[in-house]
Each structure stands twice: as structure tokens, then as C-alpha cells.
Amino acid sequence: MSEKNEEKTPASVPKRKIGGLGRGLNALIEGSYEKKGERLVPHPVNSVGFISVNHIEANPYQPRTHFDQQALQELAESIRIQGIIQPVTVRQLGTNSYQLISGERRLQASKLAGLDTIPAYIRKADDQQMLEMALIENIQRENLNAIEIALSYQRLVSECSLKQEELGDRVGKNRSTVTNYLRLLKLPPDIQIGLRDAEISMGHARALINIEDAEQQLMLYRRIVAEDLSVRRVEQIVRGGGAASAPATTPGQKAPENAPQPVPVAELRRTERHLSDRFGSRVQVKPNPQGNGEIRIAFDSVEDMQRILHILQPS
């Protein structure tokens, strides 16, 4: 091995192989150190290196305020076994002082797992960029509901002075998609809460937006929940003039005797809440009119997926 190659491996980097880290990430970390006297330290920006968890402070712009403690413990156990697969992202404030941009759950779980250092991508960012990156990372999480996404979009528009075209470029969406999310915030609070709690879908909400009268919106929203109306049926009602009180079937019409009975909406929501508490992640139960369906469990990182798979394994 040449002298040049020997200088690239800092003594502060753990010698043991970190499970799940992968040769690709190790290579990045090994190549991101420079010599300072007799020590090798990470480059201050645009590099990946190991940083002490005690040198990283929380992101003051973090949109998430609640972290499920059981889910954190399970992620910590996964990290003990597999190691850190995806580095956190930080900005440097000073010597041995960093501020987290993204990866709050990974950082907290790493502390619980007893890690002294954590792989981190170091980049340059001012306060506005910090807010932008924190919000955009939040938006890109698969388990956000439509209202949470809409509120994050609104913050980017108002607090970061972004136009909708610029916002679309930032989050990889076209302007019409951004506009549709922002329009959700014009719905009555009760409907926004229903969308947040998955009592109705984004498709239902988009149909309701086309009704100008707020009271008519609420009437149709309550009927959607009570009768478990499909998006297509709601669109038909809205196109027909928003007859929110009209029955879902014509008078005297009966469902076939062998037709599957729809699962009550309240029961679906209870099931979703129970499973969400069990897995520490957002869970959606999607039944079909034929009586079958699917259950979706969201995860926000490879470590989170491994934590969920660990829960699913029979004991």
C-alpha cells in the first residue's frame, strides 16, 4: 500500500466493519479526510465523515415535533445490528460544532444505540437554506399526509419567499401539483382534519374543492365518511350540482345478496391507528369493493424499513 493511500485512513474512524454501511459509503468516508499536522480531520463542507454525536445540535427548523419512543428504540436496535446505512446531513457552525439538517431520528437512535460517532454529510447552508432543506426533506417522507405536505408547501412559499414555479422545481413537482396541495388549505377545518386523519383521500378533497359553498362541502364530506363513497361517485355528485344529501343508490335499489359488505369507516380508522401504534409508522388500510384490499406501512429510511421487518418477524 502506498504512503498516499495510508494517509487516507484516519485513526479516529472505527476499525471494525459497520454492518450495512457498505463499501461505497466507506470509500466516501475514507476519502473525505485531510491532514492537519499529525491528525486527519474531515473537510468542513461537501464531504462525508464520522462526527461525534455530542458535536451535533438539533435542527431549530425541524418540522417534526413528535418522535415515537418505541419506534426510536426499535431503530436503535437495528442500528446496533446493522450500523448506519444512510448518513445524516449537517452544516458546520465552528470547530467541532455542527447543526443537523436532516436525520433527526437516525441521530437520536444512534445515541440510544450507544454510538460515539455517526457518518455525516457536511454541507454549507444559511438559515433560509436550513429551513428549505428541513421542509423539503419533510415533504419527501412517504408517510406524510396531504395536509402536512400542503402546510410545508405553504411555509416554503411564505417563509422562504418562493414562487410556486420555484417551489415545484425544489420538490420535483409541477406547478399544478403544488397548486392542488395549496388549495387544500382553503377547505373548512373539519375537512382538513378528516383528510389528515385519512377519513377521506386526496381525490375526495380535490372534488370537494370544486364546491364553492362551505356548508355544501361539509354536507358532502359527512356523507363520504358515513357511506364510504368512492372518489368517482363524489366527482359525479359534484358534477351533478353538489347534491350532497342525495342517496348513494336509487330508491328501491338493493345490493346483490352475495355482495361483500363494506368495512365501516370507523372500524378502518381504528385498525389503522392500532397498526400505526404497533409499527411506529403511518399505516393505511385500503379495502376494495370486491372485499379484498391492501395494507400499506410507510418507512422513511432503510433503517426504518429494517426496524419494521424486525417487528414483522415471528418471535
Automatic annotation (TrEMBL):
Record's keyword terms, sorted: Chromosome partition, DNA-binding
Segments forming domain ParB-like N-terminal: 49-139
Keyword hit for Translocase: no
GO biological process: chromosome segregation; positive regulation of sporulation resulting in formation of a cellular spore
InterPro entries, A to Z: Chromosome_partition/occlusion (IPR050336), HTH_ParB/Spo0J (IPR041468), ParB/RepB/Spo0J (IPR004437), ParB/Sulfiredoxin_sf (IPR036086), ParB_dimer_C (IPR057240), ParB_N (IPR003115)
Gene Ontology CC entries for this record: chromosome
SMART domains with a match to the protein in the record: ParB
Domain of life: Bacteria
Region ranges (Disordered): 242-262
Single GO MF annotation: DNA binding
Keyword DNA-binding: yes
Pfam families for the chain: HTH_ParB (PF17762), ParB_C (PF23552), ParB_N (PF02195)
Similarity comment: family membership: Belongs to the ParB family.
Protein name, per record: ParB/RepB/Spo0J family partition protein
Organism of provenance: Hymenobacter qilianensis
